[in-house]
Amino acid sequence: MNSSNPPKNFIKTLQIIxxxxxxxxxxxxxxxAFSVKEQVFFSYSQDKAFLYLAILISFIxxxxxxxxxxxxxxxxxxxxxxxxxxxxxxxAHIFRIAMLEFPALMCCIFVLYSNNSFYFILVGILSVIMxxxxxxxxxxxxxxxxxxxxxxxLEKL
Length: 157
Known about the structure:
The protein has six helices and no strands. With about 160 residues, it is mainly alpha-helical.
């Protein structure tokens, strides 16, 4: 493979990986919802320890996903070819989504353990954040600060 030409289906592959990670959260949340549907209740006054822990894990997951993504993007040298930039971007993006997926899955486990549907609110918020971060060419070119030549190469993918 020529290192100057980016892979043909790069964006589609990254989008599929992104969707699989998002669907993993949604499918597990659906499984949990159907498993506890008879005993489920909504309360934000009971199980304060789990409540605070879930909010803290969600906040830290969101913050760390932004921080790690930013650090990984800053490590991409400006003078490397587009293929290398795309590979490093995909790694950064997958880490970013995984850092959001973990707290969402933990909140699902909290629902499974406590039968409190309040944690589904956090799962929903994290899922929406993951959906908003869906990779498209425009976002990718903006986040990577591509040159005009690289943008035209990216449009051909």
